[in-house]
Amino acid sequence: MDVLVELNRLAALSEGRVGALVRGVCARTLGLPPLPTDPSADLPDADPAVVEFAEQFSVDVSMITDAQRERLREALGDRAFGAVVQMFIGDFVPRVRAGLEAVGVAVSWPDTSAQEHSGNAADVLFNGFIPAVARLRSLDPVTSEVVRLRGAAQHNCRLCKSLRETTALDAGGSESLYDDIERFEDSESLSEAQKAALRYVDALIWTPARIDADVAAGVRRHFTDEQAVELTLDVMRNAGNKIAVALDADAPRVTEGTEPYLLNADGHTVFS
Length: 272
Hints:
The protein has 272 residues and is mainly α. It has 2 domains: 2-132, no CATH class; 137-271, AhpD-like (Up-down Bundle), CATH 1.20.1290.10. It is 59% helix and 4% strand. The protein has helices spanning 2-12, 16-30, 48-60, 66-76, 80-102, 121-134, 141-154, 158-161, 166-170, 175-179, 192-206, 213-222, 225-238, 241-246, and strands spanning 163-165, 259-263, 269-271. The chain has a 3-stranded mixed β-sheet. A hairpin with a 5-residue loop joins strand 2 (259-263) and strand 3 (269-271). Helix 5 (80-102) runs antiparallel to helix 13 (225-238). The longest helix is centred in the middle third of the chain and has 23 residues, at 80-102. It is globular. The two termini are 31 Å apart.
């Protein structure tokens, strides 16, 4: 899959000393193996403001405070955005690897420690990886949208919660169905496959180092290997909202109701 190539590019781009620091902090917070770092980069002194921000980013991004944002900017200046991108990579790529291992999808991960570590991680993430995931089409659009909205709620992304994808709406998505996501276990409208997907979303977000065997079995029962990979990567693509939430840049596009958008064949978001 081309998208796994993009994912491995992200894993290789540790971008120096701050990248090395936050990868270690995020992985330790999650209880997962850290991504490799640039062997030429000396491990930096652990700036308390960066460490605190990275820990909260991994535990619950919605609880990052304005004071923590200010301390991060004081510590890093104009490098703060790049550091948060690195936090996202160090936080979520290990979740993806743990998720695919839990559901039994074999993926050959290259040794990224031997790869080129220079480059613009934000460019690879936003212009390479995220559109590549959005181009995947093995999942039905309503399931993809249900998964997106669950992640939006869990990370409390105001922007994401204010949007509705039109292909999913045309395929049967509705506000009454989406209202059931919050208490999906009791829903009579969501399918058993969609409930299995939502359990997996919650596991990747809240307990990635301890994905319950029943949750993994539900994914295997209802989804093919190709769909399980797309589902896992969808959770990561949607979780890109953690960057906006962390920096308080997730303002909704509309003040009331929701706004439709199309995820086109190129994997880009198109507004009317």
